[in-house]
Design goal:
Blueprint: H1 3-31, H2 36-45, H3 63-69, H4 76-86, H5 105-116
Helix pairs in contact: 2-5, 4-5
The structure holds heme C (HEC).
Heme C binds next to helix 4 and helix 5.
Length: about 120
């Protein structure tokens, strides 16, 4: 193989890698845009952690269980955003989920998106 041919192949491979990366990255951000660090800061600041944990049922269901329950429900995000804002009850047991009228819609969306992604540590 000549030097030129080698470089040609390498350039093609690099171009292909960029093409794949370019196709994957916008798809992820459109679907989920999970910001684990921001979500965890928000959920600590709003005392969600006093009733929820990522993996264990406390007073409220574990975030992992919430993610599993709504895994195949494309409307879950919008519905759960309303539950966090206005409160909810009767889905997991007798204890109601309190409302959070003071939280911004953007913060609620960040937390709910993260919960539905299984509440990853990062
Ligand atoms: C006082 C305890 C408490 C606090 C604080 C709390 N939750 Fe809950 N949460 C619950 C309980 C209890 C449920 C189950 C309600 C039910 O059965 O419908 C629940 C349910 C949920 C659900 C699932 C709702 C559904 O309909 O499936 C989500 C999502 C959720 N909480 C997110 C949050 C977030 C985010 C915060 C903080 C902003 C928060 N919770 C704060 C107790 C709490």
């Amino acid at each position: 193989m000549t030097k030129e041919k080698k470089y040609g192949v390498r350039a093609l491979m690099i171009a292909a890698m960029f093409a794949v990366g370019g196709a994957v990255v916008p798809m992820q951000s459109a679907q989920a845009a999970v910001n684990a660090a921001a979500a965890q800061a928000i959920y600590k600041a709003n005392a969600c952690a006093s009733c929820h944990s990522a993996t264990q049922k406390l007073i409220g269901p574990a975030y992992a269980d919430i993610a599993a329950k709504y895994k195949n429900d494309p409307g879950a995000g919008a519905r759960l955003e309303k539950v966090v804002k206005n409160g909810g009850s009767g889905v997991w047991g007798p204890i109601p989920m309190p409302s959070h009228p003071g939280m911004s819609d953007a913060d609620i969306r960040t937390v709910v998106t993260w919960i539905l992604a299984g509440a990853p540590a990062k």
